[in-house]
Automatic annotation (TrEMBL):
PANTHER family according to UniProt: MULTIDRUG RESISTANCE PROTEIN YPNP-RELATED (PTHR43549:SF3)
Membrane topology value: Multi-pass membrane protein
Protein name as catalogued: MATE family efflux transporter
Cellular localization per UniProt: Cell membrane
Keywords linked to the UniProt accession: Cell membrane, Membrane, Transmembrane, Transmembrane helix, Transport
Transmembrane segments: 62-84, 104-122, 142-163, 175-194, 206-226, 258-276, 296-317, 329-349, 369-392, 399-422, 428-448
Amino acid sequence: MNPAEPKKASPTLTEGPIAKTLFLFSLPILMGNVLQSLNGSINAIWIGKFLGEQALAATSNANIIMFLLISAIFGIAMAAVILIGQNLGAKKVDEAKKVVGTSAVFFLLLSIIVSAIGLIFSPEILDLLNTPLDARQFAIDYTRIIFAGVPFMFGYNLVMAVLRGSGDAKTPFYFLLLSAGLDIILNPLLIVGMGPFPEMGISGSALATFISQFVSFTLLLLYLYWKKYFLRITKDDLHMLRLKWDIVRSLIQKGLPMGLNMVVVSVSNLFLIHLVNSYGSEASAAFGVATQISSYVQMPAMAIGGAVTSMAAQNIGAGNWDRVNRITWTGVGFNVLLTGLVVICIHFFNREAVGLFLPVEGKAIDLGVHINNITLWSFILFGVFSVVAGVVRASGAVIVPLVVSFIALLLIRIPLAYFLGYQFGFDYIWWSFPASFGIAMLLNLLYYRFGKWKQAKIMPTAKPA
């Protein structure tokens, strides 16, 4: 394609074979999720190796803050994906551009406010988290630089949302690959000071992340304008760079519940950690390793869930409800296949997988193997829930999936885990996973079949079912 020619403006997710389109669209999302996890793990290794436990504890505290920020921005970015997808499905390119313009201004203002608050109040925020005194200064130095990079992190998430909403998942992955590669390379150079690079300690790790996000975001914008991407804001579109309050209202009303869903997951895990810690350090270590492994098991479901949201949004905008239904069940089938394959592979090499993180001597490795044996297969149920919820959210119905998550994780899993743990012991805690995921899947399927999610409104031009 000649870069002087504008990119085709018609949506690509409302036509063609569903299975092939869904697979090719979800694959870059899946690879991006894996890449981000590996990036975080490798950086943690650099920090732990060069700076010790206090520095590693500092980054853990900073990461809790960043998770909350990412949770909020994830929801609003997903709302932008849905708004853009529905408008493009309805062939309203100008309306999609208005969403881009309003989102750009909104994200810019939000990022400046968050960045300023973080830079000024980092010590107070970390004190609220009860950050250990020996890690406090490390955490302050690290967190302030990370907060300074918030505009670039928010900006990248917005551009990624715009691209996915228009049916492009490959371009965000390429620039995420660039960002992760730079981050991994710069971390040791800036931490210990190699060659021309100064020795900056924990600040060097944060600066590496800052630089990688800035470079990736800047080059992504330049690339999109060079390719004349059809949703870019040109000088003739400058009037769209303003806050349209109906769009802002939709972004917040639909985005916050999706962000809160991540908060519900986090709170559920905190309660579970509290319970597991009562069984001693070996139990805590086993649970930590099982959580690491399960984070990779969940990735196919998360990727497919994100892909079906973009595909369903465009088809809902176009009024292709029969295709939306086929997208749903194709996504469910892909999830069962891919997550099932990952689960089977880990079960065959369960002890070896747990042994990558734990010494072969001691009780922890046996506890980790036991946790995996009971919990891993239940993530297939989680995947079905995730895919169906992704389709439902694409219509603008975001409250019921949040309520289902709240019921499953906080009203079923946690009380059941505590009951089983205190009544029967540590080994029985983990049956709360298949129970909660099974109920979440069932509730979501019932809502998909009998609920009024097709009547939800996020964009006035969407055709009703």
